[in-house]
Amino acid sequence: MDLRSYPYKKGCILCGKPLTYGPTRLRVCCLCGLTEPSDCVCPDGHFVCSACHTAELADLLLPVLTQTDERDPLRLLERMMELPAVNLHGPEYHILVPCVLLSAYSRCGGALAMPLEKALSFAIRRARQLPGGICGSWGVCGAAAGAGIFASLVTCSHPLNTPVWSIPQRLSARCLEVLAEVGGPRCCKRVSRLSVQTAVRFAREELGVEMPESDASCRTFRENTECIGTRCPYYPKETDPGRTGNGAVAERKTE
Fold this sequence. Notes:
This protein is mainly alpha-helical. It has three domains: 50 residues, no CATH class; 154 residues, no CATH class; 34 residues, no CATH class. Strands 1-2 form a two-stranded antiparallel sheet. A hairpin with a 6-residue loop joins strand 1 and strand 2. Helix 4 runs antiparallel to helix 5. The chain is globular. The relative contact order is 0.11.
């Protein structure tokens, strides 16, 4: 399966129509035939499971993140979000957050209990268990959970490891607090950037590892129907700075 054969980067990746949300039901993936519960579906009935959404990502991520000299996790995230397997929204962002953090953390002197490639593989395996849309259905954003996966791997946390058990919990909680303060609706790029930046500060304060802390300016806000405009910290400052709320939506409606 090659998702690059489907040209749509937002909405339904098979036809491009806006996805709708409703009661959770068992749905059959149009690509692999897997049956999976989901509250999201295309108006034409298309459904693509989380596994298919992320199937190509590992093959693209591992060579870059194991060989790069980049120490800045937000810069790495921006690069990874340009990969052809990454859509405007989707469960692939749950994977990106822990992976860019692990790569940068190791480049900045952070100790890992295993080779980086193995840690990345563990992160991918864990993050793939987080279905798309959980920010609305579970109350736990996948980007924040991804930051927790990063912390669990660098601290060797497990359910019985009392000395470090709370560390991933605190990072995920801190990420969720930051995301909730900015508010919704969801934007996978926004919550991923916020979670990465929060994890950078957390690593410095709690883990004693200094990673570069940069900033970003969104280049895809015009493509995002749910863009919150100037409420987003990554909304370009030079773009209609007086607009608030769903500014990008208002702009498209008046064009």
